[in-house]
Structures are given as C-alpha cells and as structure tokens.
Specification:
With 252 residues, the chain is α/β, with parallel strands linked by helices. It has a single domain, classed as Rossmann fold, CATH 3.40.50. The protein has eight helices and nine strands. The strands form two sheets. It has a seven-stranded parallel sheet, with helices on both faces. Strands 7-8 form a two-stranded antiparallel sheet. α2 links the parallel β2 and β3. α1 packs across α6, α3 packs parallel to α4 and α4 packs parallel to α5. The chain is globular, with a radius of gyration of 18 Å. The protein starts with a strand and ends with a helix. The protein binds NADP nicotinamide-adenine-dinucleotide phosphate (NAP). NADP nicotinamide-adenine-dinucleotide phosphate binds next to α1 and β2.
C-alpha cells in the first residue's frame, strides 16, 4: 500500500517547508500537496520529487476532490498536515457576512472535515499536525476571527489527541508566534510593520515534526510564543488585550 502525507497550503511559506522536510522521509512514498496556485505547485514539484500536486480550492470543492482521490487509491496516510489558513487583521464589522463564513469554513471546517475524511485511511503510528497559532493563547481584538479560529483548532487537536490514543494516532497542535511568510504584510500604508520575535518557517517545521514524532500534543516554537503562552496563563485576558490593542493600533 502506498504511504502518503497530505499537506494543505503546501504552496505557502510554512507548507512548502513541511513538504521539503517530509520529502526526505523514507517512510513516505508520495506527498499530496494541496494548493490553488499552479505556478507555486509546479515549483514545489521541482524541489520535492514525491509531490503529487492537487490544485484545488479548499473553500470550494477541495474536500470532495481529496475524498474521491482517497477512495480511488486507498492509500496508507502516514501524515496529515492541516496547514492552509487565512488571516484578517482589521475591524470585525468591516469583514461582512460572506467573508466571515468563508473564514470559518477554511480555518475551522476544512481541517475538521479533512481529519474525518482521512481517519479511515490512518493506522498505528500515523500523525496529524494542525497548524494553529500563538493567537490561540488569548483573544486578539482586530484579529478576532483569526484568534477564535485558532482556538477552535487547538481545542479540536488536543481533544482528538486523547480520543485517538487508543488507535495510536498522534495529534499535534502547532502554535507559532509571528513567522516570516507572505501571510504577514510587510507594510501598511507605507508604515513598516514590526513583528516582535518573528521566526523562520524552517524553525516551526523542524520543531513540529520533532514534537509530533515524540507524540506531543502541543508544539510551540521560539521564545516569543513560549513566553506568550506562559504570560497568557498568569495574566488576565482584559490586560493582555489592552496591551495588544496598544501595540497594533497604528496599523489598523
Ligand atoms: N505567518 C505567520 O505569522 C503564522 C503564525 C502562526 C500560524 N500561522 C499559520 O500557518 C499556516 C500557514 O501560513 P503561512 O504563513 O505559511 O501562510 P501563506 O504563506 O499565506 O500560505 C497560506 C497557504 O494556504 C493556502 N490556501 C489559502 N486559502 C486556500 C484555499 N481556499 N484553498 C487551498 N489552499 C489555500 C495557500 O495556497 P494557495 O495560495 O496556493 O491557494 C498557501 O499555500 C496558516 O494556517 C497560518 O494561520 C502563520
């Protein structure tokens, strides 16, 4: 049986690094790399020979496309990396109902549905990695939907890591702080945006794969995210939100 890894958002900053690292693993025959960008998928195939490009919009019929490929090929899924995600920084009120719906769908529903679709093809030792964020440690005004969606993913991950223990499937929730990728705007109206403690995607991936191999349910890379995790446990949310708003107000 073919042993595969599935990576959503494999064309992005963190996803492509995951693909490169997984490409070196002896126990993986194929990497089903999901993304919408044809050019980026082509480029990924050049650096990762195990890539099987699946060009699809997860916000549309992506889950159906993957599900039907799974039922046609019945592979052994060794790894599922739920990495695709979107961010929106600004006033919630300006998002509008359509964007709110799409946001919830991509950041919450897609990873949940994909886990459900993949579980029948996962066996002892299979691994699920869900890319959440340090935004899941506390509520973030003006990043409200993002932070709420990452809490969803964190709680889903941790609960499933307990439920799936009997089946010897590990679930690791990855919570980085700022990561240097295209997701982060470099400037807003000519003002350079500063991201304290920003780390590289490589660091996130290295730690995440190591932690998942150890069966850890959480992977928090870098000093900044770990400090934030601790801080959010000892300080009241109201105070943290106040400090957060003070820091980002100039960019809104
Ligand atoms: N960057 C950070 O500071 C940071 C921090 C903490 C957590 N994270 C999380 O890490 C994950 C990866 O983020 P990143 O920084 O690598 O972002 P990125 O470079 O913007 O990549 C996002 C990826 O998601 C894919 N994607 C978005 N919408 C999609 C859709 N509708 N259908 C299919 N694919 C879609 C994109 O693929 P296409 O463009 O090909 O469609 C792209 O590969 C996200 O879940 C993010 O929330 C990021």
């Amino acid at each position: 049986m073919k042993r595969i890894a599935i990576i959503t958002g494999a064309t992005g900053g963190i996803g492509s690094r995951f693909a490169e690292a997984v490409n070196l693993m002896d126990d993986i025959d194929e990497i089903w790399s999901i993304g919408r960008n044809t050019e980026k998928l082509k480029k990924l195939k050049e650096s990762c020979d195990k890539t099987v490009s699946i060009e699809t919009d997860l916000a549309n019929d992506g889950i159906d496309v993957i599900s039907s490929k799974l039922s046609d090929e019945t592979p052994d899924i060794r790894m599922l990396i739920n990495n695709a995600g979107v961010a929106y920084m600004g006033e919630f009120e300006k998002m509008g109902t359509k964007k709110v719906e799409q946001f919830c769908f991509l950041n919450c529903s897609v990873p949940s549905q994909l886990i459900s679709a993949c579980l029948p093809y996962m066996h002892d030792g299979a691994r699920i990695l869900n890319i959440s964020s340090a935004s899941s440690f506390q509520p973030n005004p003006y990043l409200s939907m993002y932070s709420a969606s990452k809490v969803y993913l964190k709680n889903l991950s941790r609960a499933l890591s307990v439920e799936l223990k009997e089946r010897k499937i590990t679930v690791t929730c990855v919570c980085p702080g700022w990561v240097d990728t295209e997701m982060l705007k470099k400037d807003v109206e000519g003002k350079e945006v500063k991201y304290p403690g920003m780390i590289s995607a490589d660091l996130v991936v290295k730690k995440a794969l190591k932690d998942s191999l150890k069966g850890k349910d959480m992977s928090v890379p870098g000093f900044f995210a770990n400090y934030f995790r601790f801080y959010s446990k000892i300080m009241p949310d109201r105070l943290i939100m106040k400090q957060w708003v003070r820091g980002i107000r100039k960019y809104i």
